[in-house]
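Sample 3 of the quickstart, ligand beta-D-glucopyranose:
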Amino acid sequence: MDLHDQAAITSGSDFWSSTAAGDVPAITLTDGPHGVRLQVAGAGDLLAGRPATCFPPAVASGSTWDPELLRRMGEALGDECRAMGVQVLLGPGINLKRTPLGGRNFEYFSEDPLLTGVLAAAWVQGLQSRGVGASLKHFAVNSQETDRMRISADVDERSLRELYLRAFQRVVTTAQPWTVMCAYNRVNGVYASQHHWLLTEVLRDEWGFRGVVVSDWGAVVDRVEAVRAGLDLTMPGPDPAGDQALVEAVTGGRLPAGTLALAASRVHDLVAKSTPDTSDGYDQAAHHALAREIAGRGIVLLKNEGAVLPLRTEGQTIAVLGELARTPRYQGGGSSQMTPTRLDDALTAMSEAAPGRVGFAAGGDEAVRLAGSSDIAVVFAGTEQETEGADRESLDLPAAHLELIRRVAAANPRTVVVLSNGAVVTTKPWDADVAGLVEGWLLGQAGGSAVADVLFGRVNPSGRLAETIPLRLADHPSYLDFPGEAGHVRYGEGIHLGYRGFDARGQEVAYPFGFGLSYTTFSYGEAGAVVREDGIELRLPVTNTGPVDGREVVQAYVSVPSSRVRRAPRELKAFASVPIAAGETAEVVLLIERGDLAYWDVRLSRWVVEGGPHRIEIGASSRDIRASLTVDVPGDEARVPLTADSTIGEWLTDPRGAEVLTEVFTAMAEGGLAGGLPMDSSTLQMLGSFPLGRMAMFPGSPFTAETLAGLVKRANT
Ligand code: BGC
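Result:
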């Protein structure tokens, strides 16, 4: 490939294709993530696509807490890509839900990096098992839509490593996605598309990423700087001016020829492993059924007073109220919006489940009358729109929906609300008026049937909140630092993202992270733990003590009470969604990986597992702990070398440093050299925060540059 070809294949040839050059054909990359949105050739509308299965968006699939389901979804998406001639599917989106107002929260899994990473890795493995590449996006810290093309997410190093990069790290190291998509925004002042540290030092050198870094569509500001930073493929294209700039930068000696050649060779390798042929198709009915299964498993039952649910198919009249029962909201707006192969609505599905017993009204006085004259009322309420490109302004349901809920609940005490929303809404205080509350998220094309499955108990709910529902927006840890101003958003809550922050302040929430009810009940037995080289293995018996088969999502949280750094009181470190038949006991086994116990040490610039007691809490949610135990974990070697800038306190808490320094102090005291100061404990306390080197500035001090250098050397050998 000559220089011109190299430059050309590092950008697209149109909106969705790479550039063919020499023997390198073009490949097709398309959105993503919850369905294949292959644009109809020549269609003016960017969002129009050929029909394909609209699986539940990540807000719902993330609430399943089940990597096995995500893997099957990835496989099915891979089959559809193969049928449509798509080589790379642009997903999964794994940015953390930093604020409940995030306009793209529906496309992201969770506020927790472990849950996000585990689910996304399974999705990627499923997709790529079909010979179709994933595009892990948006790398990195793209947790808001406001000013998304320019905003700088200003995040401290620990929060960046422990939260915002951690899910990416897990997916890259465990699933090797074929591509990673860089974000639009800046990270600590530098555009993600030209962030050498992010795209090369962290992603490739540290994590071992071997694929292609593709730009988000229009994210590249400067092609030469982007390629220099480690970006391989600029999309969309063509970009003749950028190609030319690259050629000139290489010939002018401003960009090493090897850097461009490497980017081109990575694109070449991506094309080489892609399968150009289309398959014969896929089983649409089977994929619809899978979409329904995942949707049913993603629904979260938040409230069920007096066992108002499940509904009965006979002997009960049911008023179905609200337009959303008939006209579902099943996906969000923007690049993931697609054309489904078919669309189920809850009204039809419920009418089929209970023939002749379901009445419907969209709203108004009619709706209230119908509720009053029926045995049970089910109100469908939800947000109006969540979309890429804009954050939400409020967590409240539209006033008309709140009004309908209020009036129906007054007319019928057996009222159930089913929500359709891409991100959480406030539920207090109105949910006190209703008997049942079902969080139905955006559920994809089979969501209507899935809602009926859960309402009638054909599916026993097992979805769990992957994000906290706060009482009020102002309670949220991100509240004071969102959406930023003057081009910067400061991640002021640091490591206390989502439930970590609510727990750290002991704040009340509407529904906690990890929460979700079932039509059955589970009891937890005593937990046992074995500390192994690779982590901590937990075992405990969980019994289904209720009348029906169900699934329990068992969650393990860890804290390190005597940590040398600030830690959240509770961090999710392992989980499992376990089917347990009525009356049966399952032996649940969870493995907490040793690496997940580590914090990022900013002084050592690496991960450190602290030695000592770790408290493990196992429960049905982050605030429903059923078993706890403390284990002793052997720590990593993590000594911070002493320097002249280390404080006297730091010297004295380090065993070797203390030895060396005590010797000196004793000699000083004996020689009357401490400037008249007795080196007793109160003096040492006063001087504890004093960098040792500053002692040299005191009159009569025995410390000189040479003696200090000698001490430092002795202390560190
Ligand atoms: C979005 C990406 C998407 C791309 C292509 C961008 O605006 O941020 O998520 O994959 O467009 O449609």
